[in-house]
Amino acid sequence: MRDGRPPLSVVIPMYNEESVLPILAERLRDVLDGLNEPYEVVAVDDGSADGTADTLAKMRTSWDQLRIIRLQRNSGHQAALLAGLMRASGDYVVSIDADLQDPPELIPEMLQKARADALDVVYGVRVDRTTDTAFKRVTAGMYYRLMRRLAGRQVPAQAGDFRLLSRATVEALRELPERAPVLRIVVPWLGFPSGEVTYLRAERAAGETKYPLSRMVRLAADSITSFSAAPLRIATWLGLLGVVTSAVLVVVAFGAYLVSSTTPGWASLYVAVLFLGAIQLLCLGLLGEYVARIYTALQGRPAYFIAEDSGPPE
Q: Where does the UniProt annotation locate this protein (predicted)?
């Protein structure tokens, strides 16, 4: 340990993961004890409603390296992950989900690669997602293609929140003004030297998924509106298209008037009004997303509240 800081911290956000915790602890502890160097495990309980908190408390009685952070309420996966990263003290910090779809056995390889190649970020990249449903594979592929188009090629394809960060990267995240960053986009944007390790994505070890379609859509919306102004540009182009369409309709109506074609154009007018109204509503919705983020930032509300932390006081 250097200045009381362990070489490695492992951050695990979790919500209602009581059933998978014994399996997770067994596999993760075997891996970390095998490193033969100090470490800490930061388990962030995101306001679980099942027995997750009690199970973690029992585990800590026989696992000194386990640190438990319990959030006051369910704040979301990204907020729980950020809470763990901000309180982890290791020289390197690995984040991994509790469902064991990302293998903890890969952590030593990530750590070795970071040290050998002087990397600040090592991404766990999935090369096979056959254990996911076809719908999940298609939507995930669309998400990563969109993110790479908006944020640049530095965003690794098929890399979720299983990654290793150096202390320098964590401190850079700490300096960002955003209170609720989408780490899948922000970490690559920082531009620190990075590498990848690949693995086959496994099935969930136990329990049910905590990322239904609604949360996937919310993640995609947050990723876009928190990082890029592209939707505003889309709104601008749609508005321009609406103006051009209106101009064409005016010319058509004027031409009909000149040739004395006075057949009532209620259908054309109805379609035009609907079309323009739809564009206006879409533009208002997109603008509303950004206004809402500005409003949230001005409020200055933290993304999470710590109810309990079993680690040393900061």
A: Membrane
CATH class of residue range 8-210+302-309: alpha beta
Dump pLDDT digits (tens) for 58-113: 999 999 999 999 999 988 888 899 999 999 999 999 999 998 889 999 999 999 99
Burial class (CB in 10 A: 0-12, 13-18, 19+), 56: buried
The neighbour count for residue 101, using CB atoms within 10 Å, is 20
**Residue for token digits 């035009």?**
272
CA distance 104 to 236: 46
**C-alpha distance from residue 283 to each of 162, 233, 246, 277, 296 (Å):** 35, 10, 17, 10, 20
Q: How far apart are CA 285 and CA 237, in angstroms?
A: 15
Rama region for 6: left / alpha / beta (φ>0; ψ in -120 to 50; rest):
beta
| Residue 105 amino acid letter | E
Ordered by start, the domain boundaries in the chain are 8-210+302-309, 230-299
pLDDT (mean) for 269-278: 70
Look-up: residue for tokens 């250097």? 2
Among 97, 95, 73, which residue's Cα sits nearest to residue 84? 95
